[in-house]
Design brief:
By secondary structure, the chain is mainly alpha-helical. It is built from five helices and no strands. Helix 1 packs antiparallel against helix 2, helix 1 packs antiparallel against helix 5 and helix 2 runs antiparallel to helix 3. The longest helix has 26 residues. Keywords: Membrane, Transmembrane, Transmembrane helix.
Length: 104
């Protein structure tokens, strides 16, 4: 359960920043970077060489979300970031469900 917080807290931070901050400045980018690093710690729940495909997919979805959020002010709208956030949350939920089935 503790490792799931590595996924949920960064996603919550991304959602709050995207929906409450109009213009991103460097302190917000720093918070996003820290949230990104915390999300990467979620990989610690798997053995080093045995990262499942669904975990790789959630990592890729989060990478895309992070890059899109960084470029939000210049090129993208917050609505598109919310769509990407929803997709990432869906992939993370699928990963959690699949890994719980395997551990049972």
């Amino acid at each position: 359960m503790k490792s799931l917080l590595f996924y949920l807290i960064p996603l919550l931070i991304f959602a709050v920043i995207n929906n409450t901050i109009a213009v991103l400045t460097w302190p917000y980018y720093l918070v996003l970077l820290l949230a990104f690093l915390v999300f990467q710690l979620g990989r610690t729940r798997y053995p080093k060489d045995a990262l499942p495909a669904v975990a790789k997919t959630s990592q890729v979805a989060f990478y895309i979300l992070t890059v899109a959020t960084i470029f939000r002010d210049q090129f993208l709208s917050p609505l598109l970031i919310n769509v990407l956030l929803g997709i990432t949350i869906g992939v993370v939920i699928a990963e959690i469900i699949q890994t719980k089935k395997k551990s049972s």
